[in-house]
Every structure is written in C-alpha cells, then in structure tokens.
C-alpha cells in the first residue's frame, strides 16, 4: 500500500472505532487546508458528568479534533506538541470553524464550552517520553494505540491502549475524574480468529454504552 492509501485506510478504521465504541460522531477532513485535523466532530457523554442537576440519560456534546498516524515508527513528543497547536488554533478560530461542523450537530445537544479535546490515534505504540509529554499538557488529550490487524491463526496479539491526561480525565479536568478509559478484549467468534481489542469508557463503575444521535435515530 502507498503511504497515502495506508493513511486513508487507517483514518477510516479510526473513525469507525471511535463512532462504534466511544460515542463519537465524526467526519474526515483531510486535504491541504485541514489545519492538521484528520477527524472532527462531537463526543456525546452523560449530561450529569458535567452538570450534576441533570438526568444520566441525557448526553452533552464536546468538540473533538483528532489526528491519525499509521507509521511503523513510534510517535515521539513532537506529535503531542503539534496536536496541542492544532487544538489551540481551532479554539482561536472557533467562530470560523463552523464549516467543519458535523451534520448531526443540527440535532442539538448542549455544548461543553470549557475546552476542546485533542485525540491522537497511532498504529504504533507511544514512547515513554511521548506519554510523559501528554500527561504534563494543560490541553485535554486522549491517546489511543490501535495495532494493525494480525493474520488469522497468529499466536501473537499486540495489545492496544487508551490513556488520557489529567486535563481531560483528572478530578480537575474536563471529565472531573468520573470516567475511566479501558482497553477490553472481545471473545472471537471462532477458534481460528484472534481476540479483538476494543476501547471502552466506564462511568459510575459500569461500561458506558456508545451513543450518538445518528446511531439512535
């Protein structure tokens, strides 16, 4: 596969995974004028996560900007710095960013104005220095490692991972320390298939069902 085609395939894979398992509604941006953004959209989380006076069945949307890298080399700290820059530029140009808006935004839902979440998805695992850089950032960041699919029958399954920093998941962060990111394993349908790793969110000690307006319309 060419580098461009491989990148496009990985972006599609990332979009599908985030939408299916993490309650995100996204669209691909791409192109020379993408501002460093590969995916943009909304994260639909329990309303009472951010406002304790509301029902747990309601959802509030938070802006998501994501970058996807399908590279064999482990991403270094520079990628975190670049993502921080993308988030800051987006926030500075927020009023001009309406053209990026997802069609499902018209369905409504309160918007959390306290920040934009930067998501970085990599096909290779992160270096220790990259994780340390992300953990020390004041920007809400979510880092996900999505390993490539292995051939059927392989005895080795590379685990993925999902981690966020204190600015996002800490008690003083955007999610107020009320959620936990986990990497779960799905039992294969047949003995010939490998276990499938998937990211998941946990809220109040229970796995949070993925929900978006389009998936539940």
TrEMBL record:
<protein>
    <recommendedName>
        <fullName>Restriction endonuclease type IV Mrr domain-containing protein</fullName>
    </recommendedName>
</protein>
<dbReference type="InterPro" id="IPR018828">
    <property type="entry name" value="RRG7"/>
</dbReference>
<dbReference type="InterPro" id="IPR011856">
    <property type="entry name" value="tRNA_endonuc-like_dom_sf"/>
</dbReference>
<dbReference type="GO" id="GO:0005739">
    <property type="term" value="C:mitochondrion"/>
</dbReference>
<dbReference type="GO" id="GO:0003676">
    <property type="term" value="F:nucleic acid binding"/>
</dbReference>
<keyword id="KW-0496">Mitochondrion</keyword>
<dbReference type="Pfam" id="PF10356">
    <property type="entry name" value="RRG7"/>
</dbReference>
């Amino acid at each position: 596969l060419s580098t461009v085609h491989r990148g496009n395939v990985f972006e599609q894979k990332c979009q599908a995974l985030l939408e299916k398992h993490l309650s995100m509604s996204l669209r691909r941006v791409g192109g020379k004028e993408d501002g460093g953004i590969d995916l943009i959209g909304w994260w639909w989380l329990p309303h009472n996560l951010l406002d304790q006076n509301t029902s747990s069945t309601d959802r509030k949307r938070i802006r998501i900007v994501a970058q996807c890298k399908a590279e064999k080399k482990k991403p270094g700290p520079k990628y975190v710095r670049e993502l921080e820059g993308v988030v800051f530029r987006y926030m500075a140009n927020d009023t001009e960013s309406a053209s990026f808006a997802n069609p499902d935004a018209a369905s409504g839902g309160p918007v959390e104005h306290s920040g934009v979440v930067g998501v970085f998805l990599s096909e290779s695992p992160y270096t220790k220095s990259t994780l340390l850089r992300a953990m020390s950032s004041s920007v809400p960041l979510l880092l996900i490692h999505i390993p490539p699919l292995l051939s059927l029958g392989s005895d080795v399954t590379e685990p993925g991972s999902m981690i966020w920093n204190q600015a996002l998941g800490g008690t003083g962060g955007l999610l107020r320390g009320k959620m936990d990111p986990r990497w779960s394993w799905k039992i294969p349908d047949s003995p010939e298939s490998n276990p499938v790793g998937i990211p998941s969110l946990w809220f109040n000690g229970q796995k949070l069902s993925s929900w978006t307006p389009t998936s539940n319309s």
